[in-house]
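Quick one, tokens below:
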């Protein structure tokens, strides 16, 4: 893939595959496809500091998700962060928001920093920071829209989540801003690291730990999640359709 249109086409295929298989992997795919569409619109409006470079960043960034998705389908090696996120999709005990955050966790906390470095190659990484942050801004706006409209998918979410306390609030307080800041710090570490493969492995272990925290956020919140999950759409494809409508109207 070399263009953002090719990325969108591949994302369309993934969404269609997930819809036909009733796969929860489609939840993040729908969200991320809309991020890609928004980035394309921004490029066409010349919203970024370097629009051709933004397209390059978007393609490299998206390819990490697409490659992970395809590797998982083919039982090939992939990062632990994505493996945990995809494994969770086979279970109906997790709510839609958990699946979205697991995807965001792997893609922002691990993939984005790598993509930024690969985009600038040997150039100054600081030159891409503003456009790096704009990708996160687009994603953050979409996630906020999903949270604000979560009642369409999870009728009891807003009522029950108020009972979450302390560290159990990791699920609702997952911060795109903190993820972005951590991703930028990692990008700088990755840029300077002599052993890129080792750097990715070490970072992956840390982000996989965050994924485990999203899956098992504590006994209290796990009980609440169990109740919320009973009120969500039972059909994955129907949930995907509702999620698609929410993201399109942000």
């Amino acid at each position: 893939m070399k263009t953002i249109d090719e990325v969108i086409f591949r994302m369309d295929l993934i969404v269609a595959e997930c819809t036909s298989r009733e796969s929860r992997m489609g939840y993040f795919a729908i969200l991320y496809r809309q991020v890609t569409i928004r980035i394309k619109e921004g490029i066409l409006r010349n919203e970024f500091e370097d629009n051709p470079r933004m397209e390059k960043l978007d393609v490299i960034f998206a390819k990490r998700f697409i490659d992970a998705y395809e590797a998982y389908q083919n039982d090939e090696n992939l990062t632990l962060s994505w493996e945990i996120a995809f494994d969770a999709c086979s279970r109906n005990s997790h709510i839609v928001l958990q699946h979205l955050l697991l995807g965001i966790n792997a893609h922002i906390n691990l993939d984005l920093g790598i993509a930024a470095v690969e985009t600038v190659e040997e150039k100054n990484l600081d030159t891409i920071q503003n456009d790096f942050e704009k990708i996160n801004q687009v994603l953050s706006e979409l996630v906020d829209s999903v949270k604000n409209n979560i009642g369409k998918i999870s009728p009891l979410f807003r009522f029950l989540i108020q009972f979450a306390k302390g560290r159990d609030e990791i699920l609702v307080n997952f911060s795109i801003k903190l993820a972005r800041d951590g991703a930028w710090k990692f990008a700088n570490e990755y840029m300077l690291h002599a052993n890129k493969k080792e750097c990715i492995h070490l970072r992956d272990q840390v982000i996989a730990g965050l994924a485990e925290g999203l899956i098992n956020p504590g006994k209290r919140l796990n009980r609440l999640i169990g109740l919320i999950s009973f009120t969500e759409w039972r059909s994955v494809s129907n949930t995907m359709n509702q999620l698609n409508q929410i993201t399109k109207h942000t």
